[in-house]
Here is the input.
Amino acid sequence: MLLLDYQNVLIQSVLTERFSGAPPAHIDQTVSDFDGVTFHISTPETKTQILVSLQIRCFKELVQYGAEDVLHREYGQYVVPAETGYDFSVLVDLENLPADKEERDELIKKISLLKRNAMAAPFEHAYAEYYKLKEAASKYTSEEAPQGVREGGEVMAIHYRDEEAIYVKASHDRVTVIFSTIFREETDRVFGKVFIQEFVDARRRAIQNAPQVLFRNDPPLELQGVPGVKETTGGEIGYVTFANARRNFPHPDFQGLFSLSHQSIKVLRRARPENEEKERKTASGRTFKVQGA
Amino acid sequence: MDLWLRDEGLPVETLRVYMASAFPTSSSPTFEPAEQRTNRSLLHRQAFSGHLLYLPTYVSAPPFTRSLTVAVPATTGVKTHDQPNITTVVVVVVVVVSPHLTRPPSPCTYNSDRLGVAVLLLGLLPPSPPLSPSPRHGQPDPRRCHGQLSVHYSGTGFSKLGFAGNDSPSFVFPTAIATKGPTGGSGGTGSGRPSVANKPSFLTGGAGPSGHLSMKRGTEDLDFFIGDEAIAASNGPGYGLHYPIRHGQVDNWDHMERFWSNSIFKYLRVEPEDHHFLLTEPPLNPPENRENTAEIFFESFNCAGLYIAVQAVLALAASWTSTKVTDRSLTGTVIDSGDGVTHVIPVAEGYVIGSSIKSIPIAGRDITYFVQSLLRDRGEPDSSLKTAQEIKEEYCYVSPDIVKEFTRFDRDRSRFLKHVVSHPGGRQVTVDVGYERFLAPEIFFNPEIYSSDFLTPLPVVVDGVIQQSPIDVRRGLYKNIVLSGGSTLYKDFGRRLQRDIKHLVDDRIRASEVRSGGARSGGLEVQVITHKRQRHGPWFGGSLLGQTPEFKSYCHTKAEYQEYGPSIVRRFALLGGPGGS
Here is the structure.
């Protein structure tokens, strides 16, 4: 279970139950997801019409980077005007479902991925820009490239939490994704650093095609001049940079990253008791203490 | 602080009054004869300022009467948990025993002239110096500690998770976890399967059942499933099923922590540092369990805030949705009947009266077994447990009078129903549904038709529980009898219970009116509250209280935890109590 799913389990289970032909029932559930996302599943008018609404802190920014297009492309006919207090809504009519079971499962999957699809826009945008720039750059050598091509696109900032953000920037040879992370406590900072260092080292050791990862405590050069990025941080904020040229992870899994860091801290803890084990037994059962160890 | 009083059960000729005061300055309790007095206002006002009190049993008739009807257990006790603001406990004992008394007092009703009476009054004086180790009075009786005070099953193995403000839990699944390797050695697993052969540890990466975490090299401890997925995984090879909670107590904290971690991250999908958590515990949960829980929630999950509430109190809060409830009090008797066991829990102003809790070994599972045995007796084509459960849930109801109900069935054949069972493969079998429709829930009211060792009807148990509780809360306990749990959902269950309890109470009142020679009683209101949220009563109560704006101020925060340590969770301000909403 090392990796968490992308989709919201509750939306998935509620829809699966409803779609399976169970008698229509009234639903009114508010549930949450990572990164301060809130979902509201309800049957506002009749029991056969299920409304799923999404509220996300950075929706304005996402719209700016083309979220509406992505969501309309994904949900098309199901999109309805957003419910009050929420940013985006889809409505499913149980009496009007696709007849095919596989199509129904596909729809369930799609709706439970609502949050991921909303967050995907800036990344898709960045990759589109990357291909454009790549093509533009292929006409020049690195010295004579004009201003716009050499520096790449705008930095897109997604403030998905109060103090933490994701920055996405496309250039002609790569797409750079920067996560700013906050570790308030000293111990967390150490754990966080050790863990993220693993990411950095992974490329060196085993996984050659892993994206390039950098970790530093001051804003990377890409973020210079971006509003809201502090110049010095006092070590609380870390910046994790992924640079990726291939389109092998178009929708980075943020939750995966965070849950991984939660889990890995537990793995790191295992290192501790080992050092404390000082008593050893000989074959005859006598024990002895390791001196000074 | 434990204070125990023993009634020797010996014949005593005169009336005696003892007062035992445990002052913080004296190392042993002093005894002094005192006037027979009942400082009831003191009792009422301060008895519940503590965390958890085991209030004693005492007379059921008005004080100062020489002729009393009492229920006196052979041993009565007073016990409080460590409370910094309780420094003094005063106990008054009145013993009246006839010289001709031949048998020792036991928990049954005697007549007035020849009886043993023990009156205990408990008053807690206002706090002065900090707590000192309190003296013990008499000998604690372990039998009473563990025998009569019931063990609570935490929903007999189901966890209910969800967000405050919703009307039903988002997830209800078995409190089970499937881990790599064979099933742990801690008792039966319920699956009944032989576990997978134990490989040498170098092949499994050291993931033995008892292997220390530090022995594991890989990520075995991250490879596990919980809930329904756990049950599914344990049917395949490689995984063993464990139940981290046994008898309402956490049995394996490592499994529990992993269960919680998966619940939070995989199912609820929340970042714990942004959320407050409301957990529930059974009544009489040892405070150490709370501390362990707090350690996990604050240190492993780094949660923003934590509140631990008693299930029975939340079940009371859930009943506020009923139109019958007008005054939102946290005084009442909770009848919590799930799958494994039924509890009757009196709650006074938000605190459980621990000494009066009773549990009944008859609950949902027994009703299912009973239906199954009726089906088998008739030789129905399908008498599986699943069919019995479906019949129980779909057709059963409580009848006012079984004799009349039998004749009604015989007169009107339309009351006999047919239940269609669909087998996998499309085969359908029809099962007749007959008298079990009303006989099945009847085992609560006439247990002798099902069980040969437990024979006390539920109304008698409820009445007994309230009679054992302090006299000044009894009126509130009778007035607010709240149902909770899946096995209380039968139609007319509440109505029948209310009627039966009312009969018991009225009979007793009439009897004492006759004995008192002409005094008239104003009567006593008995009310059983049935409401729409019974099935997940405690969960709904938590959802109700958790969405109030002041809920967060009742929680302990990470900063407070770090300041005071785990012992901070021994005490919580009373959610929804006076001063709350």
Summary: The mean pLDDT of chain B is 69. The longest helix of chain B spans residues 493-516. The radius of gyration of chain B is 26 Å.
